[in-house]
Design brief:
Shape: globular
Oligomer: single chain
Strand order of the largest sheet: 1-31-32-33-34
Length: 710
């Protein structure tokens, strides 16, 4: 067990005994009959389970499209639609918000916060947004450039906005806020680049900050005047050694899961990875580095620490603890206990006592985990494979799961009737290697600063490696039983990065896939009952609601996010699926039809002659891995929604290439210039590397390497 609750036991006692006024508690509860879906997780428990059963295992095969709306920006669409008072609300790429009539699809209003295009360089994992919060006629959402904005939910008029981050640093907001007791809770992202994480609470009436909890120590070694000061001074500071974190900020961003427990009046949030990833560089290989990769519980009124559980002490693989957290009750040894369920990146499913943070159980929900063999339930710590700490062995380590996780941000759901948790799981291995030279060690404002060699982890140029990358990257829907600690049933998918799940009282679980199918299974046995072709990949999670006596199901389509951006050839067959940003709403007997897909465009593949020297190409490969991979794909193999550089017309002209890559000619479209940190010679070397990639893939894997363009 990893917690510090005994240090502040009186605070915990007060939290357990306190009561939430009814007028405040109603802000976090969905309509009890399920007619509305008023929070992104349905209600405060975040179970994503609806009590509706009008659509059930008997008639789900009759689902059809009631209406749909095409959306701007063919980037990742990750929000769960929220329905309140007959209005359906979504947030989209670039932090735009739309409101529709939930029955007819009539657009009621839209709001564009006009995020500067150049802010995309600070978004590790696409310019996405995971949803809005609604409370008492107000709508709240975060923006890529770190603002928290309140709108009138009826008109879309802006009421207030607050800058929650320092925009001189690579902070972003991609997660959804939560409203708790007249406060809006929001975190941020940016740990890959180097920031210091925190969670903040703002007054719903005017956006003034009420409290802030930092998740890692102050690099300057002094108090911040924040809610987290006391616990850091007493204990958490001691878990950090000296290292690069004092320059980087340490990471630990709260970029997604925030959950309010009205029974205990506690607020839980998940904390992300460290910066740099490499614990040997970040903290000199010393200490657990609290509160990285943890669930933290605080008093929602003050932000004061109550307890924590750290799933991955001394995190070094980007194993974030920000994945979906579900509140539930579980019978253990004949006694019902209040618990939290979490399936974070590291591949183990955790059952944690939500009263005090005690680890109850931890079991794998995917196969082939190799960084650890299990957990010691007495200490709460993983039983690690020593080879996984690559910075200690000095040898590269191919980890399963890798940094994209056995489960990423895609929401999971819980059905109280079956007792099962439905997890969008995946297998995406990744190589980790120590820094090779001064280039790897140097920190930059743009590009990943992860304390390891990005060049050494690129897929090597041989067909066996490329085929292994495709075959070894898969997805799976897992129905996990927390009571037994085992997978009850599962379905394999040929691609990773499938959509979030929703379950209903109709004995159903719904999920969209990376290959564009919207599926329904029986929740108890996993029998597939429905598979509708949606033309585009689906990464979002669905919601459901009733208007005028009819049940509807809503979700977004698109491709996007970290895996499609960076995967390269490992994206496999999902790279052939179009990227169409769209809101789709289904109902029994729906008759609307999606428009026919346009013909696939012919790809003009005519790379210029290679004139670069081997030394230039090698240098370009190094610079590409550090600065370009996470948006334009491993080994420069594109993804179909950011430009495929191998077929870019800019390759033909050194001057045009420099104007874009060096000078930022396309910054308003999200492509900033790197000339402030890469020399002209380096920018030209990158061009030669991409030309080499273009020739190599055209000659060797042309049939596999070009994504679909429509």
């Amino acid at each position: 067990m990893r917690r510090l609750g005994l240090l502040l036991a009186p605070l915990l006692l007060v939290a357990c005994e306190s009561q939430v006024p009814e007028t405040e508690a109603t802000d976090t509860a969905a309509a009890s009959d399920g007619t509305e879906w008023s929070n992104i997780g349905f209600d405060a428990k975040e179970q994503r389970h609806s009590p509706l059963d009008q659509i059930n295992e008997e008639n789900v095969g009759e689902l059809g499209i009631a209406w749909f709306k095409d959306l701007p920006d063919a980037r990742g669409q990750e929000a769960t639609p929220v329905m309140v008072d007959g209005k359906l609300y979504i947030s989209t790429a670039w932090s735009k918000v739309f409101a529709y009539d939930a029955k007819t699809g009539e657009e009621l209003w839209s709001y564009d916060p006009e995020v500067p295009g150049e802010k995309a360089v600070d978004a590790c994992c696409d310019v996405v947004n995971r949803g809005v919060a609604i409370s008492r006629g107000k709508l709240f959402f975060g923006t890529i450039d770190g603002r928290l904005i309140a709108l009138d939910a009826n008109t879309g008029a802006r009421l207030w906005e607050t800058q929650t981050t320092d925009n001189s640093k690579p902070y972003t907001i991609t997660g959804a806020p939560r409203v708790v007791k007249n406060m809006v809770m929001i975190g941020n992202g940016g740990a890959e680049f180097g920031v210091r994480g925190y969670l903040s609470a703002y007054d719903v009436s005017d956006g003034s900050m009420k409290w802030r909890f930092y998740t890692v120590p102050n690099p300057e070694g002094k108090p911040d005047g924040a809610a987290s000061d006391e616990i850091f001074e007493k204990a958490a500071n001691k878990t950090w050694g000296d290292g690069n974190w004092r320059e980087s900020g340490g990471g630990g961003t709260v970029w997604d899961s925030i959950v309010y427990d009205k029974d205990l009046d506690q607020l839980y949030f998940g904390v992300g990875n460290g910066n740099p990833w490499n614990h040997g560089v970040r903290s000199g290989g010393e200490g657990d580095n609290l509160f990285l990769s943890s669930i933290v519980a605080v008093n929602p009124d003050t932000g004061k620490y109550l307890w924590h559980y750290q799933a991955t002490p001394a995190e070094t693989w980007d194993y974030t603890g920000t994945q979906h957290i579900i509140q539930a009750e579980l019978e253990i040894d004949g006694q019902m206990r209040k618990v939290l369920y979490q399936a974070p990146k590291n591949g183990f499913f955790f059952v944690v006592d939500r009263v005090d943070g005690t680890l109850i159980d931890a079991n794998p929900f995917v196969d082939n985990i190799n960084w650890a063999t299990g957990y010691n339930l007495d200490t709460g710590r993983p039983i690690e494979n020593p080879e996984a700490r690559f910075y200690k062995t000095g040898k590269p380590f191919i980890a399963i799961p890798g940094a994209l996780g056995a489960h990423n941000w895609h929401p999971m759901s819980y059905n109280p009737a079956t007792g099962l948790v439905y997890i969008p799981a995946q297998q995406i291995p990744q190589a980790y290697a120590v820094q090779q030279n001064d280039f790897d060690k140097k920190r930059e404002r743009k590009g990943f600063n992860v304390g390891m060699s990005m060049t050494e982890t690129l897929i090597p140029d041989d067909m066996a490696a490329f085929k292994a990358a495709v075959a070894g990257t898969t997805g799976r829907l897992v129905a996990f039983n927390p009571k037994t600690g085992k997978v009850e049933w599962s379905h394999d998918y040929p691609s990773a990065w499938n959509g979030g799940t929703m379950t209903t009282a109709g004995n159903l679980v719904f999920q969209g896939t990376a290959l564009g199918q919207f599926k329904a299974y029986t929740a108890d046995k996993g029998e597939e009952l429905l598979s509708l072709d949606m033309q585009s990949g689906i990464v979002s999670a669905p919601s459901t609601y009733i208007v005028d006596g009819e049940q509807y199901i809503a979700f977004l389509t698109s491709k996007g996010g970290a895996f499609p951006l960076a995967a390269g050839i490992a994206g496999g067959v999902s790279r052939t699926i179009p990227n169409i940003p769209r809101l789709v709403v289904l109902k029994i007997g729906g008759k609307a039809e999606l428009p026919a897909l346009p013909e696939k465009s012919e790809v003009v593949w005519d790379p210029p002659e290679q004139t670069g020297t081997p030394e230039q190409i090698a240098r370009g490969r190094e610079l590409y891995g550090r600065n370009c991979l996470v948006c334009h794909g491993d080994s420069a193999i594109g993804n179909g929604f950011t430009p495929d550089l191998r077929i870019s017309g800019a390759l033909q002209s050194a001057e045009l290439w420099k104007s874009i890559v060096g000078d930022g000619a396309l910054k308003d479209q999200g492509m900033v210039g790197f000339g402030d940190q890469v020399s002209d010679e380096g920018i030209e070397a990158m061009r030669h590397y991409v030309i080499e990639r273009s020739h190599w893939t055209k000659e060797n894997i042309a049939d596999l390497a070009v994504p679909v363009v429509r």
